[in-house]
Amino acid sequence: MTNFISKEVDKLIKKYKTRDPFEMAKDMKINICYHDLGNLKGYYFYQSKFRYIVINNNIQEELLPVICAHELGHDRFHQNYAKNDAIREFSLFDMTSKPEREANFFASELLIPDSTIMELFYGDYTFSSVAAELNVPIELVDFKSQILKAKGYNISPLCISKGNFLKK
């Protein structure tokens, strides 16, 4: 699964020449909207050939690219679930749901280049210091480390990823 996701992310980065999920969404003609969603961080839906990423306008700024990248993952892999009914992120980054797990891996692969994270790990950074350096949740670093392990890197993932870490 992670190999397929990595290949898809690589294709998108080459095609759109960016890792920025907002630029990529714009180039892919996906509409990004911001609304007050209460406790909901964001969602993706597809209706009448139009694709939308809706992001809560009350979330922390550093989470915006994480949410957008996660929803792009849904666009790439789960459009059939989202046709005329939104994929709502009531438990964003839920590792028990296959679609959520795939979107999490997609987001980590898009936002964190292999070379960047491995350089930090070789510099004796911890998972938490890597997350702080990259300004991403530690769980995203954990997802990325699981991908790196599958690619053959000598790394031990934390496997701490929980479904409710963004609810804090």
Automatic annotation (TrEMBL):
Which residue numbers delimit the IrrE N-terminal-like domain?
Answer: 25-144
InterPro entries to which the protein is assigned, alphabetical: IrrE_HExxH
Q: Mind telling me what this protein is named?
A: Zn peptidase
Q: Which organism is it from?
A: Clostridium manihotivorum
